[in-house]
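Appendix B, record 7
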Amino acid sequence: MRLNLIGPLQVITDDGREHAPNAPKIARMLAVLALQPREAVPTTLLIQELWGQNPPRSAAKTLQTHVYHARRMFQEERVTAADRNLLVARAPGYELRVNDDEVDVSSFEQYLRQARTESRSGRLEGAAHQVNRALALWRGPVLSGVPVGTVLAGRIARVEELRINALELRIEIESGLGRQRELLPDLRALVEEFPLHEWFHGQLISALHRAGRRSEALQAYHTLYGILQKELGLEPSADLRRLQAEILSSSGNEEWPGPFRPEAPETSRRHLSSVPRLRPTAVACFG
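Structure tokens (predicted):
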């Protein structure tokens, strides 16, 4: 069986049938449990997700009813073998007994860890394969169509931040493999999806510049400048201003030296995508 949380919530049975829980609270309960597989999730946390900070007195009993209906759904839909108990009571709450490869979010994180390991070891082809496997799991925003509470909102934000990490890693890997020009369509899609993420803009500006497309590179810089001024009242970072000066002073005939790299990538990169905004309604596909 498989639980897919990246995109619309899906329960895939052992024989490949798709099922989506109809009751929103059951869907949310299963999502919280699936994001902590093989761990006991406290009853208090599940109640917080389903009813917020002011739950009714009957919340604990109603939660037991939701657990009962979830178990019944697993049985009636023949999600997995009849002798396999997926949802069990375990102090201080409940546990979903599924393996990492049975939850798409867990698989995504595993592929991303493997991609980082391969990249640090200099095995860029292997790293590219793993990061593309991770990004291929994205069918849309996490739990799209499911109304979420505060618990799930925080965990969704974490997973979506990991997706941004994966996208950044993919760009660095592909650039290291000399595939900068092939990245241009993806970079254009990324700056549209994440308009406040300066690093993506920097990669696009640099790629256009190194491809000899100076006017487009300067236009891309001007677009970023306008976005930052309008949304935040800021100017582009010092690294990007230096890149603009380099473009203005260059002849446009340089050899391609590689991607744009800030002086201290982990500290100087202004990750402005963390500014609160609506969850994206469209997801760029890669791989």
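Remarks on this record: The radius of gyration is 23 Å. The chain has a mean pLDDT of 89.
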